[in-house]
Amino acid sequence: MNVDNGQMPPPTGLPVQATLLQRKLQALLDSTTPYPAPRWGFTAFMLVLYCIRVFFAQGWYIVTYALGIYLLNLFLAFLTPKFDPATEDSLDNAGPEEDGPGLPTKGNDEFRPFIRRLPEFKFWMSATRSIFLALFCSLFRFFDVPVFWPILLMYFLILFTMTMRRQIRHMIKFKYVPWNFGKKKYSGGKSDSK
């Protein structure tokens, strides 16, 4: 231990290395935040890679089904507002920690922005992690449970159709659109009247 100059040596060991690795990973994730198209392109590439792996290996249908259900769950959370207008009456009776901005339900209601239950970056991060986990599981025969895959596919399609129909009805009933393209854009600032 070198204490000649009054300084302690830098800490070493596994916890320190894990912290450094975590900081580097967080810095990498922070640098990708402003680029959603390349991030989603990478995730789509990984999903295609996984599908090719499952197609040629002819297995891991349970893993694929679980991945599909999880991605559907993430997608629904992405489309759903953080504060559901259907439960607005229950929020009026709730405490201030549960109260939040809601969507306008009448023509004379004030504008309230659409806040997602699951933000886009967290959606991307969770989807990418789940695809990596599915790829990892496809490396082991233990996870290749023999099933009749057409039944799983049919059940997933029925589940997808029913949940999306319910979500679309909810969007129509409360008149909200969970994406930005196609919406009116207003310019702020001074008007150019002369």
UniProtKB/TrEMBL annotation:
Lineage summary: Eukaryota, Fungi, Fungi incertae sedis, Chytridiomycota, Chytridiomycota incertae sedis
Organism superkingdom: Eukaryota
Organism: Powellomyces hirtus
Keywords carried by this UniProt record: Membrane, Transmembrane, Transmembrane helix
Family annotation (InterPro entries): Rer1
Designated name of the protein: Protein RER1
Described function: Involved in the retrieval of endoplasmic reticulum membrane proteins from the early Golgi compartment.
PANTHER family given in the database record: PROTEIN RER1
Membrane spanning stretches: 40-56, 62-80, 147-164
